[in-house]
Design a protein that fits this description.
TIM Barrel; 2 domains; six-stranded parallel beta sheet
C-alpha cells in the first residue's frame, strides 16, 4: 500500500543516497513520502522525465544577495530566480555585502523583512563575527542564523571589519558553547601586505601581478591559525573558498586528528586556471585568486578524495562599472564572481571529463552543504521525510552562457561564451515546480529558513 501522493516524479536515473537507479519519487504535502520502484508510479500527478536525471536540489551555502543596502548589486528576486534556473533549491546568504551587515539581531530582522515574499527558493542566513560583536552572537543564533562568517583580512566593505586572533579568542569559545560553525575567509593581512609591497610599481593590468599580490602563504598561514584555535576551543570551523592546494596537508592532518574542520572550494577554482585569464580581464577577479593548473589539479584530487567537503558558488556580483573593465586594473576592480545559476553545468562538465558521475555532484553540492548548515534533516537528499526539493537535468544538454539566459541582476560573468553540458530542465521546491525549460512557473514561494526550525 503506497502512501497518498500529490505528485510522482519518475526517471530511469534518480540520484539516491545509496546511488543512482530507476525510481519513482512520491511527493505528498511538500514532503517526499516514499521512493519506490520505477514501475510503481501511481496516484497523484505522474511526471515521467525519461532518462533525465532527478537529483536533490542544490544547496548553495555561499551566496551574497546584498539586499538591503546594495540592492543595485543584486537582490532577492533576481538572485533566487537565478538559483531556481540553476537547480538550486536552497541558498544560505552571507552576512555581507548588505547594509546593515548581519552582525546584530536588528540587522537580521531587517534582512528577513526585505526578503519576505520575494524568493523563488528557500533561503537561510549566516550571521557575522566582527570586532566587538561577541555579545550579539548568542542572540543572533537564537534568532535563527545557521552559523557565523568572519574575514581574517579586509573584506572590502566598511560595514564588515576583519577579525584578528584576539577577536577569535573571544568569539570561538562562545560559538563552541552554542554549537555554531565559524565560516572563515582564510587569508592573513601580513603576507598580503608583504606581497603588495613586492608588486608596487608593477603593471596593475597584469593578472600575474594580481596573483603575486595574494600569495598562497596568506591562505596557508590563516588556516594554520584557525586550526590551532579550533584545537584549543573545539569550535566547528569551515574554510570557505579554498583556492590553494598548498593548504591541503594541513587540513588533512587536522581532520585525521579529529578536529571539526570542513572546507569548500568553488566552481571557478575548478574550471579556470591562470592561463585562461588575459591581462585586464577583471571579470575574473576574486580573492583568493584563481591559480595555476597544477594547483587546480590538487583541488580536484582533494575533492575526489573527500578532503574537500563541498562546492559552493561564492556568488558575489556587482554593477559592471565596479569591475572597471575599460581600465582593467586588478587592484581597483571589485572582486567577485557572478555564477549562482551556473554551478551545475560547470561542475558536471568538469566532473564527467574526470570520470565522475551525478552522485558526486549530489554529494558536493547538495548533501554536504546541507550538513554544513544543519539542514540535513530537511534538505540535500532524496529520501522519505525530507522536503521534495528536486532538480531534473539532462547530462547531455548543452548550455551556452549568454547574457540573455542569465537571471542574475547583472550579466557580467567570466563564464560568458562558455559551452557546458548539464542543462537544468525543471526545479521543484517542496514539490512545487518553480522553473521549467526557461520559464518560471510559480509566483515566488520560497520560505525563509531559521535554524530553530531546521
Amino acid at each position: 500500500m503506497h502512501p497518498p501522493a500529490d505528485l510522482v516524479i519518475r526517471s530511469s536515473r534518480v540520484v539516491l543516497p545509496d546511488g543512482m537507479r530507476p525510481a519513482a519519487v512520491r511527493v505528498s504535502a511538500s514532503i517526499i513520502a516514499s521512493v519506490d520502484g520505477y514501475d510503481d508510479a501511481q496516484g497523484g500527478t505522474v511526471v515521467d522525465v525519461g532518462d533525465s536525471i532527478v537529483m536533490p536540489g542544490l544547496v548553495d551555502t555561499h551566496v551574497h544577495v546584498n539586499e538591503p543596502g546594495r540592492t543595485e548589486w543584486e537582490g532577492w528576486e533576481t538572485a533566487t530566480r537565478a538559483a531556481a534556473a540553476g537547480g538550486v533549491t536552497t541558498l544560505v546568504e552571507m552576512p555581507l555585502n548588505s547594509i546593515p551587515a548581519t552582525t546584530t539581531v536588528p540587522a537580521l530582522t531587517a534582512k528577513v523583512a526585505e526578503a519576505w515574499g520575494k524568493c523563488s527558493v528557500d533561503v537561510g542566513f549566516w550571521g557575522g563575527v566582527v570586532p566587538g560583536n561577541v555579545a550579539d552572537l548568542p542572540a543572533l543564533w537564537e534568532a535563527g542564523v545557521f552559523g557565523f562568517k568572519c574575514f581574517l583580512a579586509p573584506s572590502g566593505v566598511d560595514e564588515f571589519h576583519h577579525v584578528e586572533e584576539a577577536d577569535l579568542r573571544q568569539a570561538m569559545p562562545v560559538l563552541a558553547e552554542l554549537g555554531a560553525p565559524l565560516l572563515v575567509h582564510a587569508e592573513l593581512p601580513a603576507p598580503l601586505e608583504r606581497a603588495a609591497a613586492s608588486v608596487a610599481g608593477m603593471d596593475p593590468r597584469s593578472y600575474a601581478t594580481y596573483v603575486r599580490s595574494r600569495p598562497p602563504e596568506a591562505e596557508v598561514d590563516a588556516i594554520k591559525l584557525v586550526i590551532r584555535l579550533c584545537r584549543e576551543f573545539g569550535t566547528r570551523v569551515h574554510v570557505v573558498h579554498l583556492a590553494t592546494a598548498e593548504a591541503l596537508p594541513l587540513l588533512r592532518a587536522a581532520r585525521s586528528e579529529g578536529l571539526p574542520v570542513t572546507v569548500e572550494t568553488c566552481p571557478h577554482y575548478l574550471h579556470f586556471a591562470d592561463d585562461d585569464i588575459a591581462d585586464g580581464a577583471t571579470e575574473f577577479k576574486c580573492a583568493p585568486p584563481i591559480r595555476d593548473r597544477r594547483n587546480q589539479q590538487g583541488l580536484w584530487d582533494a575533492l575526489a578524495a573527500g578532503d574537500i567537503d563541498l562546492v559552493a558558488s561564492d556568488h558575489s556580483p556587482c554593477p559592471p562599472e565596479m569591475k572597471g573593465y575599460e581600465a582593467g586594473d586588478w587592484f581597483t576592480a571589485w572582486g567577485g564572481i557572478a555564477s549562482l545559476q551556473l554551478g551545475l553545468p560547470v561542475m558536471w562538465s568538469a566532473a564527467r571529463e574526470r570520470g565522475m558521475g551525478p552522485e558526486h555532484i549530489a554529494r558536493w553540492m547538495s548533501a554536504a552543504p546541507a550538513r554544513l548548515a544543519g539542514l540535513q534533516a530537511r534538505k540535500g537528499a532524496i529520501a522519505p521525510g525530507l522536503d521534495a526539493d528536486l532538480v531534473v537535468w539532462d547530462p547531455d544538454g548543452q548550455v551556452r552562457v549568454s547574457p540573455e539566459m542569465l537571471h542574475h541582476r547583472h550579466k557580467l560573468t567570466p563564464y560568458a561564451g562558455g559551452l557546458f553540458s548539464g542543462e537544468v530542465l525543471a526545479t521543484y521546491v517542496r514539490g512545487a515546480r518553480v522553473y521549467h525549460r526557461g520559464r518560471f512557473t510559480a509566483a515566488p514561494a520560497g520560505r525563509l529558513l531559521l535554524s530553530g526550525d531546521a
